[in-house]
Every structure is written in structure tokens, then in C-alpha cells.
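ugh finaly. both done.
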Amino acid sequence: MILVGVDVASEKHDVSIIRDTGEVIRDNFTIPNKESGYKKLLDEIKKAEKLYPKDKVRIGLESTGVYSMSLTEFLATHYEDSVILINPILTSMFELSCHVHYAKTDKTDARGICKFLSKNEDIRPYAIVSYHTRQLRALYRERTKLNKRLNQDINRLKGQLHIAFPELLDKKQVRIGLFELEFLSKYPTADSIRNMKPEKLVAAFSKIKYMRIDIAKARRLIEEAKTRRINMKINAKRGREYQEHGCTSKSLSLRLAIQDFISTTLPL
């Protein structure tokens, strides 16, 4: 059997071609990570097949994401059911099991992949993936990243909101909606509505669809804002200057959290 080991990198690939008997056919040559390099590798494999026409070819590459994708697709079109993607951790552990003192280099990795192929014949070969499948996978990964970032921004926004303006959220409310974002953009702290009349607060949202508030909710928010101000005065022991500085800091942190949340939701 002809074994081809390819150690994948970003700009070049190191290759070794040996037989399962241990005979070296072509050892330690380098190809660039572009089409001319792929054709050079294909020529070398063809030469090995001419020397040993009865031997089957097995090609092993370490799975390194984008760096190995183009070469894998190229080889799979010429050697279907003979190209194998290998987890780099498996090849590293295999080399460590064979040698106590293992010096990891690109050249030794290429030879190590050949040895790994000779000892593991039951590995499932690579199957060519269609363009649409790859695009769907990429979209799914991007969606997962956005959801993770969105959850982080929501938690950050809730944390800042509980510091600066906890009265805005109901006790049973578990999410932040469009109304809360619009409200916080205009009135980021309780102090910003403390001296406002309920009618003015209702009028501020009267022209925005699905964001209207009634007079009762407006009165409740203003009343709770006044109560919060009184409690801050009672609890503060470092003077009015510290309170004003703290309020400004909370408002700024909340505004930044809102901006991050909105920038995350825009692509969705």
C-alpha cells in the first residue's frame, strides 16, 4: 500500500510518501498551498503508482479547517474513498505512544501521518461535500456565534439596568424588548424622569407604534424614580459629589451596553 502523509500549514505543506512495508518512496518534500503545489503532489503520487501498480493509495491529511479544505477537495476528486482527514490530536498522541522523546516538526509530522495510516485501516474516508452544504454549515456557525454574543450583551445590559434603573423592568420580566431599549435611549437613569410630569412621559411615546405607555405606568415609574433618589440620599455617606459622579458613570455604562446590544441585533 502507498501511504501519503501531508502535514498542512497556511502557506506550504510537507509531504512524505512511503509504503506500508516501511520503504521510503519520496520523503520530506514541500509544496505551496496553491493549485501548482496540488498538481506537483498529484504527479508524485502518480509516479509512485507507476513504481507499484498493484498497491492501493491512501492519503492522510491533518484536519486544520480552512488550510486543508482546498487540498482535500482537490485530492478527493482524483482519489475518491482514499483521502482521510485526521484529527491532529490523534496523530500527536500516536507519535507519543511510539516515541518517548518526540521532536515535533513538519517533516516528522508528515512521516507520522503515514505511520498512523498504516496502523489504522478502519478510518472512514473523506466524503466530498457540496457547495451548498458548506455554505449552510458556515451560516450555522455564524448564527451560533451571534446568538452567543447576543446573550452576552443581554446579560450585560440587564446588569447595568439593575444598577442604573431597576424600576423599568417588572419583577416577572425576563427579557428586554423594543420598548425598554427606546426608553433607555431617551432616559438612561431614574434621575432623568424624576421631575417629569406623567403626561409628558406618556406623550414622549405616544407617536411610536407598539411602544405607548398609559398614565398609570408613567406615574409608577416617576414615583419609583423619586423613591430611588430619596434612598440614594439616605444611603450615601460620601457627599453629593460622589452621588453625581456615580450617576454619570452608571448612565455611560448603560448607554455603552445598549449600543453593543443594538449593534449585535442589527445583522439579525
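ok and the 2nd:
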Amino acid sequence: MDDEISISMPKRTSLVHQCVKSILEYIGKSAMQLGDQLPSHQELASRMGVSVLVVREALQALNALGLVDVRHGQGTFVRGFEEADFLGLLSYGPLGNTSMRDVAEARAMLDLTALEACIANAGPAEITRLEEAVAKMRHPRDPSDSGDYHILFHRELLRCSGNQLLYAIGVPLINTFFALASERNIPPVDPETLRRAEDHSLIVNAIKNRDLAHACEVIDLHMLHMPSRFHFFPFYTEADARSPKGSDRETR
């Protein structure tokens, strides 16, 4: 009988997740831009038929993802997608213990994936945009802007990969890597490195020449040989493959 069929109670986490999706859908359908203010907690709760507490948790999740900016006493404002990062998530659970080695290695993984995708997919128009990005790095209007141009180059590299999912996932990741590297002073983020455009030109040349064979070496050079010096991706040795990552092998 129907009375004997059990019905799972909706979990609070699922309700919060559904609200996150609804709020993102609202932002998209409303064509909201960077800095636009969302409706109040009370109004969102009324529209979605949930409690204010659930809305607050959903907005906190979006804030942790860098997609909105919750300003106490002022409201909630939209952040630009290209400024989003995952720094808020790194304060939770095991992510709070992320090592510098993990940050650098994950950065190498993303850069190499983007480079190989560009080698396979980038056409003349995409290569031109990358060359323009390098030119801005080489001749910034203000030397203090060189760091911004560095990040912009890597966002453009992801855009030119021809894979929208890689771009959507990669932009917040690259923003997170740069923010963590700056916070923990991990190369290559020092001002002298940021002003160099030569290694970025090598990345563009590898794409123009469809040089997949030397993609790893290009990324290693770009990251000041950190992958090869510390034997992490994509420069594992046979001994590394047999040994777990330990604190004695972390980058310092």
C-alpha cells in the first residue's frame, strides 16, 4: 500500500543547495552585473518559499565561492565571474591544511592542461589575443599593473583552450592559485618575475608551433623550474611514484 512506502525527508543541505542554484539562476536571468545588489534576505526567502536562515546559508556558500560579496549592514552584491575564487572554501576541513607544494603542483596541472588544449584548439584569432596579452605584460601602462596582466594572460589562456567547462572551472582556480601564492609568497609571484614576459612568449610560441612535445618543459620554465626541482607534476621520477608525498618533499 502507498501508506507503507517511505518518503525521505528533504535534507537541509539539499535545500540550501537548491537555493544556491535558484539564486544563481536569478542572477543570470536578471542579467545582473558586477556590483549589482541582490534582493534582501527576506525578499529572497519569500520568493523561494524558504526560511531566511536557509537563504543566509545559501548566500554564505556563494560568498565562499567568490560569486557574491556579503557586506554586513549593506546587503549582498554580485561579484564578476572572472574575479571568483575558492579561497573561502579553503578555510573548511582538510582544505585548510593545503600545503604550498599542493598549490604549486595544482597550478602546474592547470597550466599544462590549458596549454595542451590551446595547442590542439587555438586558431589565429586566439593566438592574436594571447600575443596581445603578452604585449600588455611587456609594456604595462603602470609597473604596478604587471601582476594584473599576469593573471589576465592566464585567464585568456583558459579562454583560448576552446573548452567552456575548463574555462568556467579554471578561472576561479587560477585566481585562487595567484591569491594563495601571493599570501604565502610562493614563486612565481615576486615583482621581478611578474614583469617578465619572455616565458609567456614561449607559451604562445608553443601554441603557434603546435609543440605538444615540449609543453611540460615550457610550463616548468614558466614556474621557475619548481616542478622539476621538487619532482612534482609533471616531473615525477620513478622514485617519486613509489613514495607518498611527505613533508620533507614540500616546497618551502
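summary for the 2nd one i guess: The domain at 2-81 is CATH 1.10.10.10 (Arc Repressor Mutant, subunit A).
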